[in-house]
């Protein structure tokens, strides 16, 4: 397929490489950055030109305003998109704004899927991402070969646009609260005089075991806070959770607390560290 790809960062660059390796023809536009090493792609000046050259346009951008600018801004995808083309936004952004973006692209005769992912840089490189999709079944079926080149656990969550983003927010709530729980437990145990590495080892064998205890618990103990997934991106996702919950009239008390702790951690200088660095914010709350 002729695929346009916009947003060649930590996640987008390896995803684009996997699409090229699967035999797709890529067109990209860049934002003050160079073409990632080893990526075979035609480079054009604007997202509109990317859209003109492509049957499917994929975006993998940081936040909601970035996606809005690239899709609907001056020189954006909407200016160049062909009737019958498909836009797939794989960024983690607002489900509410997603419904608006989809409606604007549908007015141009294009299809739209929201398809955020979980699995991090490792999953992006290994083409083993979990992909959570919102949009019509027929568009999902059409995109399946693309998803299969990028990930393994691929789910159409709902036929309304925004369902994929809602699912990703649910994922981020579980991960954030898990990180917070592991951080609290390890700070508590070490302040009580136990070796946190031994505590983690013991817990891994029981009911408190989790991928977060395994991976992020290890990072907390070894103080390996290079991202990974940045504190500032997780802060953004918890903000999206609270915005959506407010619109729905749903209370998320522990998500709200976690969001405050992530903010405190960012304010203490860790915004671009891995989200396991949340433990450093909890340590500052403990008696020295
Ligand atoms: P990143 O900041 O590394 O990459 C974003 C890329 O978009 C950058 O290369 C930037 O130059 C580019 N960009 C921004 N505006 C652009 C424009 N107008 N035109 C062209 N390119 C533009 O971020 P990332 O870690 O790759 O994350 C991307 C999305 O995926 C985010 O929504 C994030 O929450 C989500 N996500 C990240 C991870 C992770 O582990 N890093 C995991 C799952 C989901």
Automatic annotation (TrEMBL):
InterPro entries: 3-OH-isobutyrate_DH-rel_CS, 6-PGluconate_DH-like_C_sf, 6PGD_dom2, 6PGDH_NADP-bd, HIBADH-like_NADP-bd, HIBADH-related, NAD(P)-bd_dom_sf, Tartro_sem_red. Keywords: NAD, Oxidoreductase. Pfam families: NAD_binding_11 (PF14833), NAD_binding_2 (PF03446). It comes from the Bacteria. This is 2-hydroxy-3-oxopropionate reductase. PANTHER family: 3-HYDROXYISOBUTYRATE DEHYDROGENASE-LIKE 1, MITOCHONDRIAL-RELATED. NCBIfam families: tartro_sem_red. Belongs to the HIBADH-related family. It comes from Paracoccus alkenifer. Residues 162-281 form the 3-hydroxyisobutyrate dehydrogenase-like NAD-binding domain. Residues 2-158 form the 6-phosphogluconate dehydrogenase NADP-binding domain.
């Amino acid at each position: 397929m002729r695929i346009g790809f916009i947003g060649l960062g930590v996640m987008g660059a390896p995803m684009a490489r996997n699409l090229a390796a699967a035999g797709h023809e890529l067109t990209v536009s860049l934002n003050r950055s160079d073409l990632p090493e080893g990526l075979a792609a035609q480079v054009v000046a604007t997202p509109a030109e990317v859209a003109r050259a492509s049957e499917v346009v994929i975006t993998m951008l940081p936040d909601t305003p970035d996606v809005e600018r690239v899709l609907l801004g001056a020189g954006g995808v909407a200016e160049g998109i062909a009737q019958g083309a498909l836009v797939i936004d794989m960024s983690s952004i607002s489900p509410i704004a997603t419904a608006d973006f989809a409606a604007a692209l549908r007015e141009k005769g294009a299809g739209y899927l929201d398809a955020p992912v979980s699995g991090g840089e490792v999953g992006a490189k290994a083409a083993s991402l979990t992909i959570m999709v919102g949009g019509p079944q027929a568009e999902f079926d059409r995109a399946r070969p693309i998803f299969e080149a990028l990930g393994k656990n691929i789910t159409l969550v709902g036929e309304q646009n925004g369902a994929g983003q809602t699912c990703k927010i649910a994922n981020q709530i579980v991960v954030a609260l898990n990180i917070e729980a592991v951080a609290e437990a390890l700070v508590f145990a070490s302040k009580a005089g136990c070796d946190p590495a031994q505590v983690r080892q013991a817990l891994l064998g029981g009911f408190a075991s989790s991928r977060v205890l395994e991976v992020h618990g290890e990072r907390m103990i070894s103080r390996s806070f290079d991202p990974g997934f940045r504190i500032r991106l997780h802060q953004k996702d918890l903000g999206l959770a609270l915005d959506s919950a407010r619109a729905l009239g749903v209370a998320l008390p522990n998500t709200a607390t976690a969001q405050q702790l992530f903010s405190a951690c960012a304010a203490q200088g860790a915004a671009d560290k891995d989200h396991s660095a949340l433990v450093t914010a909890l340590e500052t709350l403990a008696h020295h």
